[in-house]
Amino acid sequence: MVDIVAPFVSIVFVNLAGLIPPGPLTFGLVRYARERSWRAALQFMTGIFLSDLLVALLLGISGTTLLSNRWLDLVSGIGGGILLGWLGGITTCSAWWPQVRPHQPGRGFGRLGPLTHGFAISIFNPLYWAWWGSVGLIFFARALQGGLPGIVVFILAISLPTYAWFSAVFWAALKGTELLPARHQQVAHVICGTALIAFGIRLLFLSVQ
Question: How far apart are CA 86 and CA 196, in angstroms?
Answer without folding.
Answer: 9
